[in-house]
Structures are given as C-alpha cells and as structure tokens.
Amino acid sequence: MTRSWVPGADESLFGLDNLPYGVFSRQGEAPRVGVRVGDHVLDLAPVLDDEVFAAPSLNPFLARGRTAWQETRARLQALLAAEAGGNRAAVEPHLVPLDQVTMHLPVEVADYVDFYASLEHASNLGRIFRPDEEPLKPNWRHLPVGYHGRAGTVVVSGTPIRRPCGQRMPGPSFGPSVRLDIEAELGYVVGAPTRLGERAGAFDDHVFGVTLVNDWSARDIQAWEYVPLGPFLGKSFATSISPWITPLEALRPARVAGREQDPAPMDYLRRDAPWGLDLTLRVELNGETISTPSYRNMYWTPDQMLAHMTVNGASLRTGDLFASGTISSEGAFGSLIEVTWNGAEPIKLADGTTRSFLEDGDTVTISAVAPGGIALGAVTGRITPAT
Amino acid sequence: MTRSWVPGADESLFGLDNLPYGVFSRQGEAPRVGVRVGDHVLDLAPVLDDEVFAAPSLNPFLARGRTAWQETRARLQALLAAEAGGNRAAVEPHLVPLDQVTMHLPVEVADYVDFYASLEHASNLGRIFRPDEEPLKPNWRHLPVGYHGRAGTVVVSGTPIRRPCGQRMPGPSFGPSVRLDIEAELGYVVGAPTRLGERAGAFDDHVFGVTLVNDWSARDIQAWEYVPLGPFLGKSFATSISPWITPLEALRPARVAGREQDPAPMDYLRRDAPWGLDLTLRVELNGETISTPSYRNMYWTPDQMLAHMTVNGASLRTGDLFASGTISSEGAFGSLIEVTWNGAEPIKLADGTTRSFLEDGDTVTISAVAPGGIALGAVTGRITPAT
Hints:
2 copies of one chain form a homodimer. Chain A is of the alpha+beta class. Chain A folds into 2 domains: 21-104, Fumarylacetoacetase, N-terminal domain (SH3 type barrels), CATH 2.30.30.230; 112-384, Fumarylacetoacetate hydrolase, domain 2. Chain A has 10 helices and 26 strands. The first copy, chain A, has helices at residues 44-48, 59-62, 66-80, 87-91, 119-129, 203-206, 219-225, 233-236, 302-310, 336-339, and strands spanning 21-26, 32-37, 40-43, 95-97, 101-104, 112-115, 146-149, 154-156, 161-162, 165-168, 173-176, 180-181, 184-190, 207-214, 217-218, 239-241, 246-247, 255-256, 276-277, 280-285, 288-291, 321-323, 347-348, 354-355, 363-370, 374-384. In chain A, strand 10 (165-168) and strand 11 (173-176) form a beta hairpin. Chains A, B: One of its GO terms (molecular function) is fumarylacetoacetase activity. Chains A, B: InterPro entries: Fumarylacetoacetase, Fumarylacetoacetase-like_C, Fumarylacetoacetase_C_sf, Fumarylacetoacetase_N, Fumarylacetoacetase_N_sf. Chains A, B: Pathway: Amino-acid degradation; L-phenylalanine degradation; acetoacetate and fumarate from L-phenylalanine: step 6/6. Chains A, B: Its EC number is 3.7.1.2.
C-alpha cells in the first residue's frame, strides 16, 4: 500500500488504493466533485485545476473515458502520497473533514437496469413464490435476466424512504405496503457511451466503477402487479445508492474468476477475464448485523451483464447504472424475505422486538469490504411512515 | 377554427388549433425549438424573444408549467392569425419550410414507462401466448399494468432501426430476430415534475402533450426472456417517437369519457374528467395501410396511468414519457402479431409479397387524426439488416 500524508488515511479502509469519487457540498456552497481519503474529502476542482470537477455530478468526468480516469487517479495518488513533498502544502487546504460536508447523488443516472444474477437469490425467491414449480425459470441459466427500473427515483444514501402505498396482495386491497423489504446489491456505473446499433466493447473501457445499492422492494405490491410485464411500483418508489463510486481500479485485488456456469454460456457471454469480485457485504438493521452475504459466488458476472444488455444494439449513456440484483450466498441472504423465509422465521433484535419486514423508523445500512483493505461507501436509509 | 395567414395552414391538419412543438435545425445550425404550422416550422426563439426556445430540447420550456404553456400557445395563435395585422411582417422571416429542416428528438427523455392499456391487445396477446389460460391475468382489470423501458434508446422518427440480435425462441438460439414487430402507441410527455413521496395532481397540470410511438418489438427475443421480470432486450433496441409533441389543449375536441370499467376502479384510479381520446390511427407498411385502430375504446385512460404511476410516491421529472401500450380496437390491431395472428394469417401486399413480421428494408409509418381537423405528427422507421 502506498502511504499517505493525510491524517488517518492509512489506518482507514479509504487509503490511497481506494479513492472513491463523490459529490459533496459545504454549507451554502454548490455541490462539486471530491475524492474520499480517510475521513476527508478532497475538493478536486482547485487541486487539479479542472472545471470538470466543479460540476454537480460525476457525469462530465466519466464521459472523458478510461485514459482520463487512469491519469486522474495516478495524479491524485502522487499528490496524496507520503513522499508528495512540496505538493502537500498546495493540497492540504482543500481537504475537508467528512462531517463538514453534505453528500449528494454522485451520478446523474441515465438508464437504470437491475439484474437477477445470484443463483441463491433467484432459487430462494422461486421456492417462496412458486413452491410447486422448479425454482428457476428455464431461461435463468442461459442469460442474465434483467429489467429496467426507474432512474428518476435513484436517491443518495441517507434520503428518507417513505413507505409506499399501492394495490397489495392479498386482495387486492389498497394501502401502505406491509411487506417492505431491502435488496442488497452492487451497482456498476457506466462512463463511456456506445452508439445505437453497436455492442459494448471491453468492460473496463465502459464501466467506471461500482457503488452499493439498496433496491427497496414492497413485496405485497410487487406480488400483485408483476405478471406479465415485471416489477413496477413495488420497486419504483426509491432505490438508494452509496454517495461513493469506487473505481474499478481499486477493486483489482478483489477480482476472482467467477462461478462456474452450466450450461456453458453462448459466445457473446463468454468470459474473457476474471470479473468476479471477492466482496463481503454487511447488512445492518438498526445497527445490528443481520446478514453478511458474499458477492464472490454470483452466477452472472458484470461483464456478462454488460455484454447481454447491449447485444441487441441498445446504446449506453454516461451515467447508466446497472445493478447485480440481490446478493445472496449460501446461508447469507441480501433480502429480508429470504432471511425470514417469507416471514416464517422472524429476526429477533437485541431490543426484544422481531422483524419479518421493515417497520417505520427502521434504518438499514449496507456496507462492503474487499481484499486489500478497501471498503465501499455504505448506503443507508430510514423508513418514514406512509402518508 | 381561427384562420391563419400562413400559406396552406388552414387547409392542412396543422392549422392554428394544432400547433405541435418540435426541435429542428437548418443545415449547419444548432437544433432549436419550433412550432409546426401547415408545412412550415416557426423558429420560436427570435419570434418570442425567449432563449428557452434556443435549447436543443423542449425540456426547459416544459419545466415552466401549464400557465406558461397556455400563454405561449395563445401568443402564437395571435401572431399567426389571419387578423394578426402588423405582426406578420415580423414573424414571416422565421417561418421555415419543413423540407429545409432536419427534425430531432423533441424531448430529452427522463424515464420511459410503457403501459398495456388496450383490453383487445392484452386479450389477444394472452390468447396467442397462453392459449390454455384465461387471456387476461387477474390483475389486469384492477390496475393499468406497466413497466419501465429504456429511455436512452427512444429515437426520433426517421432513425433507421437495426434488426436486433439476441437469444431467441425457439431454442434458445442466437441470431437476428426473425419476428420483428411494431406496436402502435400514444405517448404522453410530462412537463411539470413532482417531488419524491408525493402523488401527481391533476393530469393537465403535469402532462404537456402527446406523441405517436412505435415500440419496436422482437417477439422471439421477448418470448424467451420475459419471465419473471418482464420485457427487456426484446424492446430496448429502439423506440421511435414522432418529432412533434401535440399540446393537450389541441386535443380538447377529441376528448371522450373513456370506456366503462368493470370492476369499478379503486378510489385513486377514479376518473374525474373525460380523458379518453377519440383518435384514429393509421399503420402503413411500405405505403400500404394495414390497420386503422381506434384509441377511443382504450380501457385505461392516461389520467389513470399517471395516478397509478405515482401512487407509490415515485416522482415525475420533466421529460418523462409514458405510453399507452399497443392500441388495438375491435378488428383493427396495432401490432403485426395480432394482424397476422402470430403469423398464421400473413398480410398480402400489393407487390405480391406477404408479411408475417418485418423484413429488412420495410418501412412502417404510424399516423393519427382527431376530430376538429387535427393530425398528430407521424412516426416512421425503416428496418436495416442485423450486423
């Protein structure tokens, strides 16, 4: 690990090998781009003398493409390194303690796609929802199943989540969801676009980085509405993401081959590089850890998702976000409907209460760590009552 | 009808009671906002002395809200009226013949939602895809079923449509779609946004106008991928819209009560005003009319779609587009899969060829007329071979 002169950085999980990007503001000032170092955010526009970082989202920087991303990262690592020497005096005034800033949505989300890439999650939901059938649909092992979500309701971590109303099962009856759930996911942020009619090229030429996602889900609304066109209002009320986008570069030590696939995927889905990721997530409910699913064994890897999403010539835009779907591993699940097995086995909390699904006032926080002493920025949200 | 001094306007279906908005450019110039009058487009920025119309999309104007939309329309009608008097000399230099301009995507599409609002279409597809079951799913008469589509591949009329590749039924096999279809739809463009957690108010406070939509569909890709999360690559390669957005105001004479609904819809879906529309569509394949479906009898009205889409607190953004789903009426269908009954009854064309689905080189044009001598701008597209 390259050591840094920034106080606390080397001892944190946000040292020089990490350096995630976000959008922050100081009181009374406009949002702008920063990089996290330890418990500080570095204000990039003055340090790098580049107006692209004075924008209120990462999009203009992401649009510059991979070479620019690499150059910027290398420059920041040099400026922040212990041996930075004379640079330190110029940089230090632009380090702002995290507790003095407000974090904003880091990316102006173009299209949002959610996949369904965990074999355990898809199997569990099949068993719960369709107990008399094969848990996996016939297509599941042939392609990464996915669908478009609502980009306009992707919100930054910390945004209160209002309990949605709608038509619910059983019934249908109308009212606030009583089966409000989470989905712990990893999201991939597209930087470099493609043109309509073209397929995407190499994964790391297009994808800038990753973020943690909580795809809030109202199971009782979803169960009634989802045939035949898929989830809609059961998901579209809010999707939270971490304020930090971790560059792919930082996750290099976390890369693993990815799970074996049977049947062998079609040519356009063939893996050319190890794009599995050895990440361990932690799901906390009101501060108590309720699950620690691993991403390592996800069935479909992100390069396969990207290849699939564009094989029909659909174009990519800067700011596209595509997520993995719920991350469940053997015995460690990324949704309450799995943890409590559809409410049959409620969670017991330390305060003596139990949970099948979320109550008003509950706070859920999802975090993740990777080998090499890297953490992703956490995503958190608190449930507020329906109106 | 108010008469206009613009040559040919009164005799066209684009007179002063119509005045749809679009984005145009003259050779070598930047795209900007114009209004169609007869076979001319009026360059609004200089005429109204307002920079909002120098933007390359309608979004900044749409964001101003209903009062501004009404004022602008009234001003334009006065400037273009036969009795405009001295105004004519100032306006006339900014009228450009349509054949001297290129039309662009009129709206920067935020989220794109597609509904499934035609009872005939939903029933027909049920009969074709699931012949052994009830054609309608249990939820269909209780709520307007819908899903999110890909906003980034909404393209303007005239954009070539490349035949998509993908995993297809039967099989799965990989290759170009051999069941490429159209869906003739009406799209609604949102102007005034809402905040997260709020429901939308009155329909005409939020929705600016309508456009024709061709939701190109690869039936063989869709059939394999769509369970359980809905259509994805079978639709996401392209969705074409007319270059013209017709203000709701222009469709006042077309408004009808809307079809009776059984069971009575829940309170939040109660109709408070007649938002059915008496429109007749025309679908042409290589210049031959193959169907003339009516919008009049659509089951779910657009105010119900808007109420449904936001009942869970999902916010609206300026530029959101939501479409009706395929418009089929009794005996007149808005998709080839219905017209040819899944290929069992191919269309015979005047050149002696037949069609079950689209061939490379085919051109499809969808147009529509409303009472009061109003036409919507047509949407057209030609199929180019897969790569």
